[in-house]
Amino acid sequence: MPPNLQEYDKEQVRLMEEMCIVIDENDKRIGAESKKTCHIMDNINKGLLHRAFSVFLFDSQNRLLLQRRASEKITFPDMWTNTCCSHPLNTANELIEKGQLGARIAAQRKLDHELGIKPEQVPLGKFEFLTRIHYMAPSDGLWGEHEIDYIFMIKADVNLDVSPNEVRGVKYVTPDELRAMFVDTSVPMTPWFKLICNTFLFKWWASIDCLDGQKDENTIHRLGFD
């Protein structure tokens, strides 16, 4: 049976009705389903897969902006993660695949929604597309993620106006400070952030001012699958 959402935060329940882009394992669009449908583990276990993005934003000191997801979040509440992670929606502008434009537009939209970062501070052309990550991760017995995740990096000094319904806390970290967070077992981290950090992030971070040699735009990296 579909889960009863009455126990959850009303705004987060409303967002669960947004329509995600359903894809196959080669990132080919095959339809659309609600965010709720896409994040139910029963559906994920049957192969339901959707498109997503993850933004890694660095300031002029090359520190990475992290967020801690709000307690109100239905999936992965209270966990630290990268700057912003969400989904392009099944709308005309966010379906545009050329130059990853739809995912860029979605990233700009969610940076404003979650963190209050205005679009003029993060122009679409400044997002550096690194690669795509395919992963699956349960949040609990009911909810989870199964995504092909477009990875963007952007370097910008921004003003924050955090939405408390989305984000519980923020911090800028150096590579050493992030490594220390990872070894501290009391610090909860989202599974996709762990996967990306364990495979690519620190290599990319070392090249943040010249990323051209790090880009792999055609590959879909399958992470965490046995």
Automatic annotation (TrEMBL):
<keyword id="KW-0443">Lipid metabolism</keyword>
<keyword id="KW-0460">Magnesium</keyword>
<dbReference type="GO" id="GO:0006694">
    <property type="term" value="P:steroid biosynthetic process"/>
</dbReference>
<dbReference type="GO" id="GO:0009240">
    <property type="term" value="P:isopentenyl diphosphate biosynthetic process"/>
</dbReference>
<dbReference type="GO" id="GO:0046872">
    <property type="term" value="F:metal ion binding"/>
</dbReference>
<dbReference type="GO" id="GO:0005737">
    <property type="term" value="C:cytoplasm"/>
</dbReference>
<feature type="domain" description="Nudix hydrolase">
    <location>
        <begin position="48"/>
        <end position="195"/>
    </location>
</feature>
<comment type="pathway">
    <text>Isoprenoid biosynthesis; dimethylallyl diphosphate biosynthesis; dimethylallyl diphosphate from isopentenyl diphosphate: step 1/1.</text>
</comment>
<keyword id="KW-0413">Isomerase</keyword>
<dbReference type="GO" id="GO:0004452">
    <property type="term" value="F:isopentenyl-diphosphate delta-isomerase activity"/>
</dbReference>
<dbReference type="InterPro" id="IPR011876">
    <property type="entry name" value="IsopentenylPP_isomerase_typ1"/>
</dbReference>
<keyword id="KW-0752">Steroid biosynthesis</keyword>
<dbReference type="InterPro" id="IPR015797">
    <property type="entry name" value="NUDIX_hydrolase-like_dom_sf"/>
</dbReference>
<protein>
    <recommendedName>
        <fullName>isopentenyl-diphosphate Delta-isomerase</fullName>
        <ecNumber>5.3.3.2</ecNumber>
    </recommendedName>
</protein>
<keyword id="KW-0479">Metal-binding</keyword>
<keyword id="KW-0414">Isoprene biosynthesis</keyword>
<dbReference type="InterPro" id="IPR000086">
    <property type="entry name" value="NUDIX_hydrolase_dom"/>
</dbReference>
<dbReference type="GO" id="GO:0050992">
    <property type="term" value="P:dimethylallyl diphosphate biosynthetic process"/>
</dbReference>
<dbReference type="Pfam" id="PF00293">
    <property type="entry name" value="NUDIX"/>
</dbReference>
<keyword id="KW-0444">Lipid biosynthesis</keyword>
<comment type="similarity">
    <text>Belongs to the IPP isomerase type 1 family.</text>
</comment>
